[in-house]
User: What shape does this take?
Amino acid sequence: MAFDGLSSRLQEITKKLKGKARITEGDLKDVLREVKLALLEADVNYKIVKDFIKVIEEKALGQDVLKSLTPGQQVIKIVKDELIELLGGEESRINFTPNPPTVIMLVGLQGSGKTTTAGKLANLIRKQGKKPLLVACDVYRPAAIKQLQIVGKSLDVPVYSNEETKDVDLIAKQAISVAMSKLNDVIIIDTAGRLQIDEVLMQELKELKKNIKPHEILLVVDSMTGQDAVNVASTFNEELGIDGIILTKLDGDTRGGAALSVKKVTGRPIKYIATGEKLSDIEVFHPERMAQRILGMGDVLSIIEKAEENFDIEEAEKLTKKLKKQEFDLNDYLTQLRQMKKMGSFSSILKLIPGFSAMKDVKIDDKEFIRIEAIICSMTEQERRNPKILNGSRRQRIAKGSGTTVEQINKFMKSFEMTQKMMKQMTSGNGMKKMMKGLDLKKLQDMPEFKNFK
Assistant: This one.
């Protein structure tokens, strides 16, 4: 996951700072040296790192921070504030025109994930109540049009294409006419890319920009290319003029240097980040939330938003009623497991919880949740409703049906019983307070969901 290396280094540094009652000027220089090395290892532009460290040092020394009662915390706050500023300060979204359709032109090099990102963006925009139209203007790459059509079909989003011509200006203009007649209020144009920036590519994009006058030009950049991503963004901005950036493959870049450099170098905001292979794996880029994640402070707001977006309200109400009657069974467990899976991988969600990213001894294997789903699905309806009837022979049958072992089923059933107890505590008097007070994270590690089966 992005920033893993930087995040662990910075969290170690902040831990040292928190533990100090007093910090000398020498201590501060040592800390800043470590921060500098952490940023450079994360592939952040050297000049940006130099300026970043300089600002932190000036603020820390110029505000009597070292003489205060909590110097460590104040230094951490300065680092966090500057990190937010480096990432762009405030979030920046698409500016939809009051007179639709809003025309969005996606540009970038081949291999950056432009076509898939077009689908992801359409999916995200549709959830905001918009009616998008995808437009296939990559007429050179083999199967590019077919790929966009497949993406559109899987999302049930219309795709406009015209394979009888290679005139992208004509295709785009025809698409705008179609959008207006079909009442599509957002047009997302997937343009051609090249393996590298060249005059032909830029001229074609400039002509397209001139003829259709898009409201937004978004550059799709592969974050895994590191400083090359920053160079690409700079060139596209200078040659074409872009309104924002979408960083793709952020889940595969453990360093994250591109995200920390691109805004400062180009002056253009990161608007969205793609964090996985699914067409739902795209989110608005929040500089403050990202800074909190990097520093191990969690990102509770993103968890809430993911839950609101993916959880079924009707199912949640049913569960609430069942909890009040203390009737939580394996059918309910399976329903909640599937709802959670819609939010993303469990390991990625836990990283958003404050303090969890620092717990390196907690191991989460998302494959185990697939195994648990198989175990429950191999049970009869009667067994799911009343797990107490699961004797030895039934467990052997379930193990055979789910491709697991009886030992694995026993471990899962123990964790389910623990979950039931927690649910009962939540629905009793001051149950929630008691549960949170007595909740031992170390015990959670013994649950199969948080530990590999052996």
Q: What stands out?
A: The domain at 303-450 is CATH 1.10.260.30 (434 Repressor (Amino-terminal Domain)).
